[in-house]
Design a protein that fits this description.
The protein is 75% helix and 0% strand. The chain starts with a helix and ends in a 13-residue tail after the last helix. The longest helix is centred in the N-terminal third of the chain and has 47 residues. The chain has one domain. By secondary structure, it is mostly helical. It contains 14 helices and no strands. It is globular and about 50 Å long.
Length: 330
Amino acid sequence: MMFMRLFSDGHKQVFRHFSDLTDTVHTAHASRKIVAWVAMLVIGGFWGSTIPLSKTATSTGHLPLGLIFWQFVAGIVLLGAYLFVRGWRPALSVEKVRFYIIVALIGTILPNGASFLAYPHLPAGVMAIAIATVPMFTFVIALLVRLERFALSRFLGLVVGFAAMVMIAAPETSLPDPALSVFVLVALIAPLCYGMEANYIAVRTPAGTDPVSTLFMASCFGFLIVTPLMFATGQWIDLSGGLGAPEQAMFAAAVVHAVTYVGYIWLVRFGGPVFSVQVAYAVTLSGLFLSIIFLGEGYSVWIWGALVLVIIGLVLVQPKLEEPETAPQS
């Protein structure tokens, strides 16, 4: 009887400890979800402000490489000052250099270059809707590299997202000029690149890196790539005449880009690539309504219909919050 009582008491104690542990795990997971969602909304809200700012920056004919150059300069100065105060020192390796260059290319140079080409020709609200396709591109790429499994609902989300883009590009009354439809395809280069980047960061981040140092080093290597190309193609933006509204918008967008981009890299690591690209929700809505408020834009019923379809597509894609990886893969 004594043995049975001890066994029973021990069993109850183990069960109680297990229940407490389970509750702790559930609480921790719930806290992670709250942190991830709040971070996603804040990052996306601020990131959306770069859409009307970028539209303003390109309004006087500033070309992509010149804009990207000053974007890199602003990022290097801001992030470099922060890292200097922290006492950070770079520790380069072939793996890290490759990582920084690829992040610079698919995270800034290619997507921003395409966006800056499209901005003068498309309403800022259309650019905001195009950004909302990031999760769809991310999911397709994640399927191809086997980071995600196929699901019918997610596939339907991709179809609905594609239909939204057709709704923008096909009808003659959706855009100010039907001939501008080709620039919708140009605008989609940016979300494609961001989708590639999200998956790349998730599986190829070297050990010993963090979001701030990653963006700083990517900006440094991006600066080295863009500078000779900018001068060779005559895209230098001369600031000797002072800073007008376009130039002020350019630097404001660069500062917001640097801050939100660091946050985005952190979110990819914290919540995983598929969850993190839900930031496109907040970017799209923020960019769309800020463009209405500050640029006075108005949109056709086709554009509003496309926005509804994109949101439905994002819901169907059903991104999830992943557990953090214990060690980055190389």
